[in-house]
Amino acid sequence: xxxxxxxxxxxxxxxxxxxxxxxxxxxxxxxxxxxxxxxxxxxxxxxxxxxxxxxxxxxxxxxxxxxxxxxxxxxxxxxxxxxxxxxxxxxxxxxxxxxxxxxxxxxxxxxxxxxxxxxxxxxxxxxxxxxxxxxxxxxxxxxxxxxxxxxxxxxxxxxxxxxxxxxxxxxxxxxxxxxxxxxxxxxxxxxxxxxxxxxxxxxxxxxxxxxxxxxxxxxxxxxxxxxxxxxxxxxxxxxxxxxxxxxxxxxxxxxxxxxxxxx
Length: 263
What we know:
Number of helices: 3
Structural class: alpha+beta
Helix content: 10-25%
Region (Disordered): 1-64
């Protein structure tokens, strides 16, 4: 697996922090402001009724440029046609010289870092992210100072495991503790990806382009992670929450440009 690519993780586009893209609720002002039902405050004859609390505005959808996906020297994979929910571009990973090495396509809810994810009253996210890793041999780094290992299922397992951590915030954990927790869990994910035959992983048979294919599979209280390879040599990782990994199937994407607009 690519030890020097450890920093090129799924977190680079999703670690927004809680509430960074949430707007505040505007409040009406001035003597002629209307109440929540569109009438003037004293129109009904009585004093102004308390205004109902407005829901927070919806999180704006994140736009990811499609150029890098189109430039990739390998095919992209996503969930197959059995999945009928939303699909979108998620992340792209490039070498120092701009060569696309890996990327991911999102399905379902857009995962967001949330401190209240584990609260009983918080809505449960339902998403799956499919990571595609190009087949690359052992090679020198772009700056010529090191050697990059060949990509493998372990590369896909690492990217998927780190991607899940990047959108996980244990309930009631403050910022300082989460930083420590994330560092520790990231090291654990790295070690697990290097030991795909270890006891933390089980084998799950899932279809890839209609062909039953073995995947390494592990689950935790925060979600699941998959890692495998296609017959053509491309390596696949996946992670998710709220959607079961057991019923998934994967297929090559005919036109990745179709994912440019979240749908």
